[in-house]
């Protein structure tokens, strides 16, 4: 039995908002070509992605919304009240089936991870974290991340941690589990004052009561570097995961925080993102008996960032780390160039050194001020000292 399972089907490329849309299916196609050329498929259990039933989708979405998605994908008539047919979420034929396949893949992985059939699961086509119970939002029609978490809870998990590293706030997942103390949602994202969806302030910690403190937001400022981004994560995420004691970890690895991404203002290298992947993996082994479900998400530098970041994610889940600085396969570079795109030559360079929070808080540093605001808002709710823990 393989340690990790990858959900993949060429039919996942049918989630396609059309020419010119940032979420091009080419980013998934090039990722899977690179995964294959690197030989990673030999170290993984690869399974098809079947569309989820309406009943499964409705564990996180309203029934009338599911019906509206199916109708919109058939008639191609916009339903703007439900976010269908907007510039962000244009209509396309069989939209329901394509989005249901994304969600079904992540839910199937949640089943496999919880049952012990595999230890880790990866769905690079998943991570649709903006979708709300009754509306599409931010390129996301159905929220597969939330559905996977719901399946883990329904199968008996008492606590699940959701870690979101996308440049954009994981607002849909947070909203769905806002008042559920079993789910710790941690979103590390660009400040909502400079980026969609405009939410995710440090002070947003969940409603008063049992769930207060289980919503955690780290809104780092525009132009944050990889080293500062890692410092922020390290200052907040490990200690809260330790306190929460999850029985499974679901992580979203949108790679749009990269400096070359056209839809964010951060500057987080593939190397730094790979480090965050390693940390999520290590936390799963340390606190959740290894149960880890890793998802894709945003990422719009189609050829020179997304395939590198997500091939590294697949390799991490398979326990087959890639050699930093190694030249990428010539066949893959040729496939990229055949699409008239820029092909990266190497997969990262080196680990990204960062200053540990234990070395002291710098009030003159904008990222440090964000970290401290989050710690002050959240840590006391867990009985922690924001200055010491």
Automatic annotation (TrEMBL):
PANTHER family: HISTONE DEACETYLASE HDAC1 (PTHR10625:SF10), HISTONE DEACETYLASE HDAC1-RELATED (PTHR10625)
Name assigned to this protein: Acetoin utilization protein AcuC
Keyword terms, alphabetized: Acetoin catabolism
Molecular function per GO: histone deacetylase activity
InterPro entries per UniProt: AcuC, HDACs, His_deacetylse_dom, His_deacetylse_dom_sf, Ureohydrolase_dom_sf
Family the entry assigns: Belongs to the histone deacetylase family.
SUPFAM superfamilies on file: Arginase/deacetylase
Domain Histone deacetylase: 21-315
Organism: Promicromonospora citrea
Cross-referenced Gene3D superfamilies: Histone deacetylase domain (3.40.800.20)
The keyword Transmembrane appears for this protein: no
Keyword Transcription regulation assigned: no
Superkingdom of origin: Bacteria
Pathway it works in: Ketone degradation; acetoin degradation
Spans traversing the lipid bilayer: none
One Pfam family in the UniProt entry: Hist_deacetyl
Annotated stretches, region: Disordered: 197-217
GO biological process terms, semicolon-separated: acetoin catabolic process; epigenetic regulation of gene expression
